[in-house]
Design a protein that fits this description.
homodimer; Chorismate lyase; two-stranded antiparallel ribbon; DNA-binding
DNA sequence: CAGTGGTCTAGACCACATC
DNA sequence: ATGTGGTCTAGACCACTGA
Protein backbone atom coordinates (compact mmCIF):
# COMPACT_ATOMS: atom_id res chain seq x y z
CA UNK A 1 0.00 0.00 0.00
CA UNK A 2 2.38 2.57 -1.22
CA UNK A 3 0.39 4.21 -3.96
CA UNK A 4 -0.95 6.94 -1.77
CA UNK A 5 -1.48 9.53 -4.46
CA UNK A 6 -4.41 10.32 -2.25
CA UNK A 7 -3.96 13.48 -0.34
CA UNK A 8 -6.47 16.26 -0.52
CA UNK A 9 -3.66 18.61 0.27
CA UNK A 10 -6.21 21.10 1.41
CA UNK A 11 -7.84 20.95 4.78
CA UNK A 12 -7.22 17.45 5.99
CA UNK A 13 -4.03 16.03 7.34
CA UNK A 14 -4.24 12.27 7.27
CA UNK A 15 -0.82 11.50 5.94
CA UNK A 16 0.06 9.77 9.18
CA UNK A 17 -1.84 6.53 8.96
CA UNK A 18 -0.52 4.66 11.91
CA UNK A 19 -3.89 3.44 13.11
CA UNK A 20 -4.22 -0.33 13.34
CA UNK A 21 -6.83 -0.25 10.61
CA UNK A 22 -6.32 2.59 8.16
CA UNK A 23 -9.28 3.50 5.99
CA UNK A 24 -9.56 1.09 3.06
CA UNK A 25 -8.21 2.43 -0.19
CA UNK A 26 -11.60 2.56 -1.84
CA UNK A 27 -12.92 4.65 1.04
CA UNK A 28 -10.02 7.04 0.66
CA UNK A 29 -10.72 7.27 -3.05
CA UNK A 30 -14.39 7.86 -2.36
CA UNK A 31 -13.65 10.64 0.10
CA UNK A 32 -11.27 12.23 -2.35
CA UNK A 33 -13.74 12.03 -5.22
CA UNK A 34 -16.48 13.51 -3.03
CA UNK A 35 -14.21 16.44 -2.24
CA UNK A 36 -13.50 16.96 -5.92
CA UNK A 37 -17.20 16.94 -6.71
CA UNK A 38 -17.76 19.39 -3.88
CA UNK A 39 -15.03 21.64 -5.20
CA UNK A 40 -16.88 21.75 -8.50
CA UNK A 41 -14.25 19.93 -10.52
CA UNK A 42 -17.10 18.14 -12.32
CA UNK A 43 -20.34 20.04 -12.57
CA UNK A 44 -23.74 18.52 -11.81
CA UNK A 45 -25.19 16.79 -14.83
CA UNK A 46 -21.83 16.22 -16.41
CA UNK A 47 -19.71 13.12 -16.28
CA UNK A 48 -16.73 12.08 -14.21
CA UNK A 49 -13.69 10.51 -15.85
CA UNK A 50 -14.09 6.82 -16.60
CA UNK A 51 -13.11 4.14 -14.14
CA UNK A 52 -10.04 3.40 -16.24
CA UNK A 53 -8.86 6.99 -16.21
CA UNK A 54 -9.41 7.33 -12.48
CA UNK A 55 -7.68 4.02 -11.80
CA UNK A 56 -4.66 5.22 -13.75
CA UNK A 57 -4.71 8.56 -12.01
CA UNK A 58 -4.78 7.02 -8.55
CA UNK A 59 -2.53 4.15 -9.60
CA UNK A 60 -5.05 1.61 -8.31
CA UNK A 61 -6.92 -1.20 -9.94
CA UNK A 62 -10.19 -0.50 -11.69
CA UNK A 63 -12.06 -2.64 -9.17
CA UNK A 64 -11.01 -0.45 -6.27
CA UNK A 65 -12.09 2.73 -8.00
CA UNK A 66 -15.31 1.00 -9.03
CA UNK A 67 -16.17 0.21 -5.43
CA UNK A 68 -15.65 3.84 -4.45
CA UNK A 69 -17.90 5.09 -7.25
CA UNK A 70 -20.52 2.42 -6.54
CA UNK A 71 -20.90 3.71 -3.00
CA UNK A 72 -21.21 7.26 -4.26
CA UNK A 73 -23.92 6.10 -6.65
CA UNK A 74 -25.72 4.29 -3.86
CA UNK A 75 -25.79 7.48 -1.84
CA UNK A 76 -27.33 9.24 -4.79
CA UNK A 77 -24.32 11.47 -5.32
CA UNK A 78 -23.68 10.29 -8.84
CA UNK A 79 -25.58 8.09 -11.23
CA UNK A 80 -24.09 5.58 -13.59
CA UNK A 81 -25.26 4.40 -16.99
CA UNK A 82 -23.65 1.59 -18.91
CA UNK A 83 -22.17 2.77 -22.15
CA UNK A 84 -22.39 6.41 -21.15
CA UNK A 85 -20.53 7.14 -17.96
CA UNK A 86 -20.86 8.39 -14.41
CA UNK A 87 -22.71 11.66 -13.88
CA UNK A 88 -22.87 14.03 -10.95
CA UNK A 89 -26.40 14.10 -9.57
CA UNK A 90 -28.26 17.25 -10.34
CA UNK A 91 -31.46 18.62 -8.93
CA UNK A 92 -31.60 20.82 -12.00
CA UNK A 93 -31.42 17.95 -14.40
CA UNK A 94 -34.21 15.47 -14.58
CA UNK A 95 -32.65 13.21 -12.03
CA UNK A 96 -35.21 12.89 -9.21
CA UNK A 97 -35.74 16.58 -8.62
CA UNK A 98 -38.12 16.10 -5.70
CA UNK A 99 -36.80 12.94 -4.21
CA UNK A 100 -37.02 14.25 -0.65
CA UNK A 101 -40.68 15.17 -0.83
CA UNK A 102 -42.60 12.58 1.08
CA UNK A 103 -45.96 14.30 1.08
CA UNK A 104 -48.46 12.76 -1.29
CA UNK A 105 -52.09 13.24 -2.14
CA UNK A 106 -54.51 10.38 -1.70
CA UNK A 107 -54.02 9.26 -5.28
CA UNK A 108 -50.30 8.84 -4.71
CA UNK A 109 -49.11 11.99 -6.44
CA UNK A 110 -46.31 14.07 -4.95
CA UNK A 111 -47.26 17.42 -3.48
CA UNK A 112 -44.57 19.35 -5.23
CA UNK A 113 -45.49 19.60 -8.83
CA UNK A 114 -48.50 21.85 -8.59
CA UNK A 115 -48.53 25.58 -8.22
CA UNK A 116 -46.50 27.23 -5.49
CA UNK A 117 -47.22 30.75 -4.31
CA UNK A 118 -44.85 32.82 -2.25
CA UNK A 119 -46.22 34.61 0.77
CA UNK A 120 -43.10 36.47 1.83
CA UNK A 121 -39.33 36.43 1.65
CA UNK A 122 -37.28 38.44 4.10
CA UNK A 123 -33.85 38.67 5.64
CA UNK A 124 -34.04 38.44 9.38
CA UNK A 125 -32.49 36.88 12.43
CA UNK A 126 -33.02 33.14 12.59
CA UNK A 127 -35.49 32.09 15.26
CA UNK A 128 -34.38 29.74 18.00
CA UNK A 129 -35.94 26.57 16.63
CA UNK A 130 -34.41 26.93 13.17
CA UNK A 131 -31.08 27.94 14.67
CA UNK A 132 -31.00 24.73 16.67
CA UNK A 133 -31.64 22.68 13.55
CA UNK A 134 -29.03 24.56 11.55
CA UNK A 135 -26.50 24.34 14.36
CA UNK A 136 -26.15 28.12 14.40
CA UNK A 137 -25.99 30.65 17.17
CA UNK A 138 -29.22 32.07 18.38
CA UNK A 139 -30.41 34.92 16.15
CA UNK A 140 -27.68 34.53 13.54
CA UNK A 141 -28.46 36.37 10.30
CA UNK A 142 -30.41 34.53 7.66
CA UNK A 143 -33.35 34.48 5.27
CA UNK A 144 -36.87 33.30 5.91
CA UNK A 145 -39.34 32.35 3.21
CA UNK A 146 -42.97 31.38 3.58
CA UNK A 147 -44.78 29.80 0.69
CA UNK A 148 -47.87 27.79 -0.08
CA UNK A 149 -48.37 24.66 -2.14
CA UNK A 150 -51.64 23.92 -3.88
CA UNK A 151 -53.58 20.88 -4.96
CA UNK A 152 -56.24 21.44 -7.55
CA UNK A 153 -56.25 25.16 -6.78
CA UNK A 154 -56.73 24.54 -3.08
CA UNK A 155 -53.94 25.49 -0.66
CA UNK A 156 -52.83 22.34 1.16
CA UNK A 157 -49.39 23.02 2.56
CA UNK A 158 -47.63 25.94 4.22
CA UNK A 159 -43.85 25.91 4.13
CA UNK A 160 -41.60 28.08 6.21
CA UNK A 161 -38.01 27.87 5.01
CA UNK A 162 -35.00 29.26 6.87
CA UNK A 163 -31.50 29.57 5.43
CA UNK A 164 -28.40 30.79 7.24
CA UNK A 165 -26.53 33.74 5.76
CA UNK A 166 -23.17 32.10 6.27
CA UNK A 167 -23.69 29.39 3.68
CA UNK A 168 -26.25 31.11 1.49
CA UNK A 169 -25.63 34.85 1.65
CA UNK A 170 -27.92 37.21 -0.20
CA UNK A 171 -30.33 34.54 -1.36
CA UNK A 172 -33.50 36.59 -0.88
CA UNK A 173 -33.40 38.43 -4.23
CA UNK A 174 -33.15 35.20 -6.22
CA UNK A 175 -35.99 33.68 -4.22
CA UNK A 176 -38.14 36.74 -4.81
CA UNK A 177 -37.26 36.98 -8.49
CA UNK A 178 -37.47 33.34 -9.50
CA UNK A 179 -39.79 31.83 -6.90
CA UNK A 180 -38.38 28.40 -7.72
CA UNK A 181 -40.42 25.31 -6.94
CA UNK A 182 -37.22 23.59 -5.79
CA UNK A 183 -34.99 25.51 -3.42
CA UNK A 184 -32.35 22.83 -3.77
CA UNK A 185 -31.86 23.63 -7.43
CA UNK A 186 -31.08 27.18 -6.43
CA UNK A 187 -28.64 26.08 -3.73
CA UNK A 188 -26.87 23.93 -6.27
CA UNK A 189 -26.68 26.49 -9.02
CA UNK A 190 -25.78 29.57 -6.99
CA UNK A 191 -23.91 28.16 -4.00
CA UNK A 192 -22.57 24.83 -5.20
CA UNK A 193 -24.42 23.14 -2.34
CA UNK A 194 -25.82 19.71 -3.13
CA UNK A 195 -28.43 18.46 -0.68
CA UNK A 196 -27.93 14.74 -0.22
CA UNK A 197 -29.59 13.96 3.08
CA UNK A 198 -32.54 15.20 5.09
CA UNK A 199 -33.83 14.45 8.58
CA UNK A 200 -37.51 14.93 9.21
CA UNK A 201 -39.63 14.94 12.35
CA UNK A 202 -43.40 14.77 12.16
CA UNK A 203 -45.88 15.89 14.79
CA UNK A 204 -49.57 16.68 15.04
CA UNK A 205 -50.92 19.91 16.49
CA UNK A 206 -53.62 22.50 16.04
CA UNK A 207 -53.30 25.04 13.24
CA UNK A 208 -52.14 28.49 14.26
CA UNK A 209 -54.08 31.56 13.31
CA UNK A 210 -51.81 32.34 10.36
CA UNK A 211 -51.79 28.74 9.11
CA UNK A 212 -55.55 28.50 9.38
CA UNK A 213 -55.84 31.68 7.39
CA UNK A 214 -53.50 30.51 4.64
CA UNK A 215 -54.94 27.01 4.41
CA UNK A 216 -58.51 28.14 4.61
CA UNK A 217 -59.32 26.02 7.64
CA UNK A 218 -60.42 26.76 11.19
CA UNK A 219 -57.83 27.72 13.78
CA UNK A 220 -56.97 24.71 15.92
CA UNK A 221 -57.78 22.15 13.22
CA UNK A 222 -55.42 19.18 13.59
CA UNK A 223 -52.53 19.56 11.16
CA UNK A 224 -49.41 17.57 10.39
CA UNK A 225 -46.17 19.41 11.03
CA UNK A 226 -43.03 18.10 9.33
CA UNK A 227 -39.79 19.70 10.44
CA UNK A 228 -36.87 19.12 8.12
CA UNK A 229 -33.15 19.79 8.23
CA UNK A 230 -31.37 19.37 4.90
CA UNK A 231 -27.67 18.55 4.85
CA UNK A 232 -25.19 19.23 2.08
CA UNK A 233 -22.76 16.77 0.61
CA UNK A 234 -20.21 17.90 3.14
CA UNK A 235 -22.60 17.09 5.99
CA UNK A 236 -23.32 20.69 6.95
CA UNK A 237 -26.93 21.68 7.70
CA UNK A 238 -27.93 24.16 5.00
CA UNK A 239 -31.68 24.52 5.26
CA UNK A 240 -34.32 24.25 7.93
CA UNK A 241 -37.95 24.11 7.02
CA UNK A 242 -41.29 23.32 8.47
CA UNK A 243 -44.21 22.05 6.41
CA UNK A 244 -47.73 22.24 7.78
CA UNK A 245 -50.85 20.81 6.25
CA UNK A 246 -54.25 19.45 7.02
CA UNK A 247 -54.28 15.77 6.16
CA UNK A 248 -57.67 14.91 4.78
CA UNK A 249 -56.31 15.24 1.26
CA UNK A 250 -52.63 14.59 1.81
CA UNK A 251 -50.41 12.34 3.90
CA UNK A 252 -46.81 11.66 4.70
CA UNK A 253 -45.49 8.47 3.09
CA UNK A 254 -42.47 6.51 4.15
CA UNK A 255 -41.18 3.22 2.78
CA UNK A 256 -38.39 1.31 4.46
CA UNK A 257 -35.43 0.69 2.16
CA UNK B 1 -26.37 -31.40 -3.24
CA UNK B 2 -27.60 -29.04 -5.87
CA UNK B 3 -25.04 -28.48 -8.51
CA UNK B 4 -25.91 -25.72 -10.88
CA UNK B 5 -29.53 -25.30 -9.93
CA UNK B 6 -29.05 -22.04 -11.73
CA UNK B 7 -29.04 -21.87 -15.43
CA UNK B 8 -26.51 -19.61 -17.06
CA UNK B 9 -25.97 -21.79 -20.11
CA UNK B 10 -22.27 -22.24 -19.56
CA UNK B 11 -19.54 -20.58 -21.54
CA UNK B 12 -19.69 -22.39 -24.84
CA UNK B 13 -22.30 -25.13 -24.57
CA UNK B 14 -25.73 -24.87 -26.11
CA UNK B 15 -26.42 -21.19 -25.67
CA UNK B 16 -30.15 -20.98 -26.18
CA UNK B 17 -30.43 -17.49 -24.77
CA UNK B 18 -33.92 -16.47 -25.65
CA UNK B 19 -34.00 -13.35 -23.51
CA UNK B 20 -31.76 -10.55 -24.68
CA UNK B 21 -30.38 -10.07 -21.17
CA UNK B 22 -30.68 -13.00 -18.79
CA UNK B 23 -30.55 -12.18 -15.10
CA UNK B 24 -26.94 -11.83 -13.93
CA UNK B 25 -25.59 -14.87 -12.14
CA UNK B 26 -25.25 -13.11 -8.82
CA UNK B 27 -28.91 -12.08 -9.00
CA UNK B 28 -29.91 -15.67 -9.65
CA UNK B 29 -27.80 -16.79 -6.72
CA UNK B 30 -29.35 -14.11 -4.55
CA UNK B 31 -32.86 -15.13 -5.48
CA UNK B 32 -32.05 -18.75 -4.81
CA UNK B 33 -30.49 -17.98 -1.44
CA UNK B 34 -33.49 -15.86 -0.47
CA UNK B 35 -35.75 -18.78 -1.27
CA UNK B 36 -33.65 -21.09 0.84
CA UNK B 37 -33.79 -18.66 3.75
CA UNK B 38 -37.53 -18.40 3.29
CA UNK B 39 -37.87 -22.15 3.28
CA UNK B 40 -36.16 -22.21 6.64
CA UNK B 41 -33.02 -24.00 5.51
CA UNK B 42 -31.03 -21.70 7.78
CA UNK B 43 -32.87 -20.45 10.83
CA UNK B 44 -32.85 -16.81 11.93
CA UNK B 45 -29.88 -16.04 14.14
CA UNK B 46 -27.81 -18.88 12.73
CA UNK B 47 -25.23 -18.69 10.04
CA UNK B 48 -25.23 -19.48 6.35
CA UNK B 49 -22.45 -21.54 4.80
CA UNK B 50 -19.31 -19.56 4.08
CA UNK B 51 -18.75 -17.85 0.76
CA UNK B 52 -16.30 -20.57 -0.18
CA UNK B 53 -18.77 -23.36 0.49
CA UNK B 54 -21.53 -21.64 -1.43
CA UNK B 55 -19.20 -20.87 -4.32
CA UNK B 56 -18.27 -24.52 -4.52
CA UNK B 57 -21.88 -25.59 -4.27
CA UNK B 58 -22.99 -23.30 -7.07
CA UNK B 59 -19.77 -23.84 -9.02
CA UNK B 60 -19.18 -20.13 -9.25
CA UNK B 61 -16.38 -17.87 -8.13
CA UNK B 62 -16.38 -16.53 -4.60
CA UNK B 63 -16.77 -12.97 -5.88
CA UNK B 64 -20.06 -13.74 -7.54
CA UNK B 65 -21.50 -15.35 -4.43
CA UNK B 66 -20.14 -12.47 -2.40
CA UNK B 67 -22.02 -9.95 -4.48
CA UNK B 68 -25.26 -11.86 -3.98
CA UNK B 69 -24.78 -12.01 -0.22
CA UNK B 70 -23.75 -8.37 -0.06
CA UNK B 71 -27.07 -7.34 -1.58
CA UNK B 72 -28.93 -9.53 0.88
CA UNK B 73 -27.03 -7.88 3.70
CA UNK B 74 -27.83 -4.45 2.36
CA UNK B 75 -31.50 -5.29 2.39
CA UNK B 76 -31.19 -6.33 6.00
CA UNK B 77 -31.95 -9.94 5.30
CA UNK B 78 -28.67 -11.20 6.66
CA UNK B 79 -25.84 -9.56 8.54
CA UNK B 80 -22.17 -10.29 8.10
CA UNK B 81 -19.33 -10.13 10.55
CA UNK B 82 -15.71 -10.59 9.59
CA UNK B 83 -14.20 -13.60 11.21
CA UNK B 84 -17.57 -15.01 12.20
CA UNK B 85 -19.84 -15.53 9.25
CA UNK B 86 -23.13 -14.52 7.67
CA UNK B 87 -26.23 -14.70 9.84
CA UNK B 88 -29.92 -14.68 9.00
CA UNK B 89 -31.47 -11.55 10.46
CA UNK B 90 -33.54 -12.25 13.49
CA UNK B 91 -35.98 -10.10 15.36
CA UNK B 92 -35.60 -12.51 18.23
CA UNK B 93 -31.86 -12.14 18.41
CA UNK B 94 -30.36 -8.87 19.39
CA UNK B 95 -30.07 -7.70 15.82
CA UNK B 96 -32.05 -4.47 15.62
CA UNK B 97 -35.22 -5.79 17.17
CA UNK B 98 -37.17 -2.58 16.71
CA UNK B 99 -35.64 -1.24 13.57
CA UNK B 100 -38.98 -0.27 12.08
CA UNK B 101 -40.06 1.85 15.01
CA UNK B 102 -39.71 5.44 14.01
CA UNK B 103 -41.46 6.99 16.97
CA UNK B 104 -39.13 8.63 19.43
CA UNK B 105 -39.45 10.69 22.57
CA UNK B 106 -37.99 14.15 22.68
CA UNK B 107 -34.73 12.86 24.08
CA UNK B 108 -34.25 10.59 21.09
CA UNK B 109 -35.25 7.31 22.70
CA UNK B 110 -37.37 4.80 20.81
CA UNK B 111 -40.94 4.35 21.97
CA UNK B 112 -40.81 0.60 22.10
CA UNK B 113 -38.73 -0.35 25.05
CA UNK B 114 -40.99 0.77 27.84
CA UNK B 115 -43.99 -1.04 29.21
CA UNK B 116 -46.70 -2.24 26.88
CA UNK B 117 -50.17 -3.08 28.13
CA UNK B 118 -52.72 -5.05 26.15
CA UNK B 119 -56.24 -3.70 25.97
CA UNK B 120 -57.84 -6.53 24.03
CA UNK B 121 -57.15 -9.34 21.61
CA UNK B 122 -59.96 -10.87 19.60
CA UNK B 123 -60.64 -12.86 16.47
CA UNK B 124 -62.98 -10.99 14.19
CA UNK B 125 -63.62 -10.02 10.62
CA UNK B 126 -61.06 -7.59 9.29
CA UNK B 127 -62.41 -4.09 8.85
CA UNK B 128 -62.36 -2.49 5.44
CA UNK B 129 -59.35 -0.26 5.96
CA UNK B 130 -57.08 -3.02 7.23
CA UNK B 131 -58.33 -5.36 4.52
CA UNK B 132 -57.29 -2.86 1.88
CA UNK B 133 -53.81 -2.64 3.35
CA UNK B 134 -53.48 -6.40 3.66
CA UNK B 135 -54.82 -6.96 0.15
CA UNK B 136 -57.58 -9.18 1.50
CA UNK B 137 -61.26 -9.45 0.75
CA UNK B 138 -63.55 -7.32 2.78
CA UNK B 139 -64.35 -8.93 6.13
CA UNK B 140 -61.94 -11.82 5.77
CA UNK B 141 -61.25 -13.62 9.06
CA UNK B 142 -58.43 -12.32 11.21
CA UNK B 143 -57.23 -11.16 14.59
CA UNK B 144 -57.32 -7.68 16.04
CA UNK B 145 -55.18 -6.51 18.92
CA UNK B 146 -55.24 -3.18 20.72
CA UNK B 147 -52.42 -2.24 23.02
CA UNK B 148 -50.88 0.74 24.69
CA UNK B 149 -47.28 1.87 24.94
CA UNK B 150 -46.08 3.93 27.87
CA UNK B 151 -43.40 6.50 28.52
CA UNK B 152 -42.49 7.08 32.14
CA UNK B 153 -45.73 5.45 33.26
CA UNK B 154 -47.81 7.70 31.04
CA UNK B 155 -49.70 6.16 28.10
CA UNK B 156 -48.41 7.81 24.90
CA UNK B 157 -49.34 5.52 22.04
CA UNK B 158 -52.34 3.39 21.10
CA UNK B 159 -51.71 0.60 18.63
CA UNK B 160 -54.36 -1.33 16.78
CA UNK B 161 -52.89 -4.34 15.04
CA UNK B 162 -54.70 -6.49 12.49
CA UNK B 163 -53.48 -9.84 11.18
CA UNK B 164 -55.10 -11.99 8.53
CA UNK B 165 -56.05 -15.56 9.45
CA UNK B 166 -54.68 -16.96 6.22
CA UNK B 167 -51.04 -16.22 6.99
CA UNK B 168 -51.22 -16.18 10.78
CA UNK B 169 -53.99 -18.56 11.85
CA UNK B 170 -54.82 -18.90 15.52
CA UNK B 171 -52.45 -16.22 16.70
CA UNK B 172 -54.75 -14.79 19.35
CA UNK B 173 -53.86 -17.25 22.14
CA UNK B 174 -50.14 -16.58 21.82
CA UNK B 175 -50.75 -12.84 21.84
CA UNK B 176 -52.92 -13.14 24.93
CA UNK B 177 -50.55 -15.47 26.71
CA UNK B 178 -47.23 -13.82 25.92
CA UNK B 179 -48.18 -10.22 25.24
CA UNK B 180 -44.91 -9.80 23.34
CA UNK B 181 -43.45 -6.32 22.93
CA UNK B 182 -42.50 -7.26 19.36
CA UNK B 183 -45.16 -8.91 17.24
CA UNK B 184 -42.57 -9.55 14.54
CA UNK B 185 -40.64 -11.89 16.82
CA UNK B 186 -43.80 -13.94 17.19
CA UNK B 187 -44.42 -14.01 13.43
CA UNK B 188 -40.92 -15.24 12.90
CA UNK B 189 -40.93 -17.91 15.59
CA UNK B 190 -44.39 -19.34 15.03
CA UNK B 191 -45.07 -18.69 11.36
CA UNK B 192 -41.64 -18.42 9.77
CA UNK B 193 -42.55 -14.94 8.54
CA UNK B 194 -39.72 -12.44 8.48
CA UNK B 195 -40.79 -8.81 8.18
CA UNK B 196 -38.30 -7.02 5.98
CA UNK B 197 -40.14 -3.99 4.73
CA UNK B 198 -42.82 -1.62 5.99
CA UNK B 199 -44.79 1.19 4.36
CA UNK B 200 -46.09 3.92 6.63
CA UNK B 201 -48.49 6.80 6.10
CA UNK B 202 -48.78 9.58 8.64
CA UNK B 203 -51.71 11.93 9.15
CA UNK B 204 -52.99 14.32 11.79
CA UNK B 205 -56.52 14.22 13.16
CA UNK B 206 -58.50 14.63 16.34
CA UNK B 207 -58.47 11.88 18.93
CA UNK B 208 -61.53 9.62 19.01
CA UNK B 209 -63.42 9.02 22.19
CA UNK B 210 -61.71 5.69 22.82
CA UNK B 211 -58.25 7.04 22.04
CA UNK B 212 -58.78 10.04 24.27
CA UNK B 213 -59.84 7.72 27.03
CA UNK B 214 -56.81 5.45 26.66
CA UNK B 215 -54.30 8.27 26.27
CA UNK B 216 -55.80 10.37 29.01
CA UNK B 217 -56.34 13.38 26.77
CA UNK B 218 -59.38 15.31 25.63
CA UNK B 219 -61.44 14.01 22.73
CA UNK B 220 -60.53 15.88 19.57
CA UNK B 221 -56.99 16.69 20.69
CA UNK B 222 -54.71 16.68 17.62
CA UNK B 223 -52.95 13.32 17.36
CA UNK B 224 -50.54 11.76 14.90
CA UNK B 225 -51.84 8.67 13.16
CA UNK B 226 -49.30 6.34 11.56
CA UNK B 227 -50.73 3.58 9.41
CA UNK B 228 -48.35 0.76 8.64
CA UNK B 229 -48.39 -2.27 6.40
CA UNK B 230 -45.61 -4.77 7.09
CA UNK B 231 -44.42 -7.08 4.31
CA UNK B 232 -42.71 -10.42 4.65
CA UNK B 233 -39.57 -11.51 2.91
CA UNK B 234 -41.70 -12.90 0.12
CA UNK B 235 -43.38 -9.52 -0.38
CA UNK B 236 -46.76 -10.49 1.04
CA UNK B 237 -48.50 -8.06 3.40
CA UNK B 238 -48.69 -9.79 6.76
CA UNK B 239 -49.66 -7.14 9.26
CA UNK B 240 -51.63 -3.90 9.27
CA UNK B 241 -51.43 -1.54 12.18
CA UNK B 242 -52.29 1.93 13.16
CA UNK B 243 -50.43 3.88 15.82
CA UNK B 244 -51.98 6.93 17.39
CA UNK B 245 -50.37 9.32 19.79
CA UNK B 246 -50.36 12.86 21.01
CA UNK B 247 -47.10 14.47 19.98
CA UNK B 248 -46.06 16.83 22.72
CA UNK B 249 -43.77 14.15 24.14
CA UNK B 250 -43.13 12.03 21.07
CA UNK B 251 -42.53 12.49 17.35
CA UNK B 252 -42.03 10.54 14.16
CA UNK B 253 -38.45 10.58 12.93
CA UNK B 254 -37.27 9.85 9.43
CA UNK B 255 -33.77 10.04 8.02
CA UNK B 256 -33.07 9.76 4.32
CA UNK B 257 -30.68 6.99 3.33
C1' DC C 1 -4.45 -22.49 14.87
C1' DA C 2 -7.79 -22.67 10.80
C1' DG C 3 -11.74 -20.32 9.00
C1' DT C 4 -14.33 -16.13 8.10
C1' DG C 5 -15.43 -11.96 5.73
C1' DG C 6 -12.96 -7.49 3.89
C1' DT C 7 -9.90 -5.67 0.62
C1' DC C 8 -7.27 -5.56 -3.66
C1' DT C 9 -5.43 -6.99 -8.06
C1' DA C 10 -5.30 -7.99 -13.07
C1' DG C 11 -7.12 -9.77 -16.19
C1' DA C 12 -11.58 -11.28 -19.36
C1' DC C 13 -15.96 -10.87 -21.98
C1' DC C 14 -20.40 -8.60 -22.52
C1' DA C 15 -24.28 -5.13 -23.69
C1' DC C 16 -24.81 -0.78 -24.61
C1' DA C 17 -24.23 4.18 -26.21
C1' DT C 18 -22.04 7.31 -29.15
C1' DC C 19 -19.64 8.67 -33.16
C1' DA D 1 -15.11 1.37 -34.10
C1' DT D 2 -14.37 2.90 -29.71
C1' DG D 3 -15.26 3.56 -25.03
C1' DT D 4 -18.35 2.96 -21.15
C1' DG D 5 -20.08 0.58 -17.16
C1' DG D 6 -21.71 -4.42 -15.74
C1' DT D 7 -20.40 -8.99 -14.86
C1' DC D 8 -17.25 -12.73 -13.75
C1' DT D 9 -13.03 -15.11 -12.64
C1' DA D 10 -9.03 -16.65 -9.88
C1' DG D 11 -6.01 -15.64 -7.43
C1' DA D 12 -3.68 -12.76 -3.13
C1' DC D 13 -3.10 -10.81 1.55
C1' DC D 14 -5.22 -8.90 5.68
C1' DA D 15 -7.76 -8.51 10.40
C1' DC D 16 -10.55 -10.66 13.11
C1' DT D 17 -12.90 -14.63 15.42
C1' DG D 18 -13.18 -18.86 17.84
C1' DA D 19 -11.53 -23.21 19.42
Amino acid sequence: MNRRALDPGGSSSDSDDLRPSPLPLYQQVKRHLVQRVLAGEWKPGLSLPSEQKLAQEYKLSQGTVRKAIEEMAQEGLVSRRAGRGTFVTSHSGNYEPFRFHRLFDNEGRRIATDAVSFVRVEDKHIHARAAAGLELDHSAPGTECVRLRHLEDEPVLVEQIVLGARLTPNIAPALERERPPSIYQLLERDYNLLVTRVVERARARGATHEEADLLNIAEGTPVLEVERVAYSLGGEPVEWRIMVGETSKIHYLQTSD
